[in-house]
Amino acid sequence: MLSNSRIPGRTHPVEVFYTQEPEPDYVEAAIRTVLMIHRAEDPGDVLLFLTGEEEIEDACRKIKLEADDLINQDPDSVGPLVCIPLYSSLPPAQQQRIFDAPPAPRTPDGPPGRKVVVSTNIAETSLTIDGIVYVVDPGFSKQKVYNPRIRVESLLVSPISKASAQQRAGRAGRTRPGKCFRLYTEKDFMGELEEQTHPEILRCNLSNTVLELVKLGIKDLVRFDYVDAPAPETLMRALELLNYLAALDDDGNSRIQMQ
């Protein structure tokens, strides 16, 4: 069951729906929501946000199978559906498929086709896909997280921020009034999500950044005027690693020549 509210988009209003209860399996809930849109909503393409390549490819397969079953059961009321994955490691030619037109009706008077783009969060801000009217947002993304104490960087599935949720909803209002289906409760949106996504410099291994600053002649890395200052411990771990790799000498000077 979904509740709804309205938020203004940059060009058209977007109606936002929330679930009444938390979803135990956000991928299954997302697939179910896409198929509900295909059966019941007006023509318009769908943008579904998931967290990574494996999850996206698996969801695309399941959506296509379920959509084909719907067409076989009721070909007069359900149009054809094409499901297109989008993630950074896809070859450029395959990434360009997101701009293809939706499939044509199976018969001249048949129901129109629909395109479903299943994407990581690269579709939040970096591109606009014409024809998107519906957004399905499970509320998660993969983020790099670095633990300086054990010196391990991981990709973790984490809740998105309110700012990211608003960006995702805004994808639905580019060409005409749209709808965003958030697969979490309004209470969780208001009370559990952070206001902004933590800047990458605060949660990633800084070895490359530190090396570039040293090569530029920056000596006092702790007091450098960062937009968002990282923890001194993270900087020290980066210096230790660069020294161990012989990229810096014992005085913190670069052993790598400027290009």
Describe the structure.
- The chain is an alpha/beta fold and about 260 residues long.
- The protein folds into two domains: about 15-195, P-loop containing nucleotide triphosphate hydrolases (Rossmann fold); about 200-245, Orthogonal Bundle (Arc Repressor Mutant, subunit A).
- The protein is built from seven helices and nine strands, in the order ββαβαβαββββαβααα.
- The strands form two sheets. It has a seven-stranded mixed β-sheet with strand order 1-2-9-6-3-5-4, sandwiched between helices. It has a two-stranded antiparallel sheet with strand order 7-8.
- The model has no long low-confidence stretch (mean pLDDT about 85).
Summarize the structure.
With 259 residues, the chain is α/β, with parallel strands linked by helices.
CATH architecture of the largest domain: 3-Layer(aba) Sandwich
Unreliable segments (pLDDT under 50, ≥5 consecutive)?
none
Strand content: 15-25%
Distance N terminus to C terminus?
59 Å
The structural domain count equals: 2
In CATH, what is the class of the largest domain?
Answer: Alpha Beta
SS content category: alpha/beta
Shape summary: elongated
Radius of gyration: 22 Å
In the sheet with the most strands, the strands line up as: 1-2-9-6-3-5-4
Question: Mind telling me the CATH superfamily name of the largest domain?
Answer: P-loop containing nucleotide triphosphate hydrolases
Q: How would you spell out the order of helices and strands?
A: EEHEHEHEEEEHEHHH
The amount of helix comes to 25-40%
GO biological process, one term: RNA splicing
EC number: 3.6.4.13
Protein name: RNA helicase
Domain Helicase C-terminal: 30-217
